[in-house]
Amino acid sequence: MKSTTKVTFLTGEYPPMQGGIGDHTAILARHLQPLGVEPSVLISRKYNEFQVSSSEFRVRDSETRNLKPETCPVVRDWGHNCWKDVKRHLAAHPADVLHIQYQAAAFELKGWLNWLPWYLRRWKGRPKIVTTFHDLRIPYLFPKAVSSAPTPKTPPRCVLIPGERASIRRL
Hints:
Largest sheet: 6 strands, parallel
CATH architecture: 3-Layer(aba) Sandwich
Number of helices: 6
Structural class: alpha/beta
Oligomer: single chain
Shape: globular
Strand order of the largest sheet: 3-2-1-4-5-6
CATH topology: Rossmann fold
């Protein structure tokens, strides 16, 4: 019997919503499926406002073109309620890994998501938490308070832009 790993991606955007993080998450999830990973995508309820058509999911790789992970638009907003929404979803749909696709702007610059790993730390049913940092530039108000919070709480971490590795080391 083939063992599967359940990975829940937590992202602030996902196709057909506009944004590179959503595109990255969709492609990553599709490419993990043939490797025995069962991905799902936890997203804001705003996702329901977008019409999903097959043309929105164009993928060049024919092997993954028709693989679409389950999308779960259950997060009310990215304020403090996101903690309860994420925990409730993970309790109902257990995952081995919660993979946070992090960019402050994708989560409406609210900052509450930064403390989600802290909130989940004592929950016995919590999955392993991995964070991928997509953009660590400092265009936002109070960047140190908002951008540095997830780092010490969520090892392991992944930085996709080579020039930003120095930023993550300073945190």
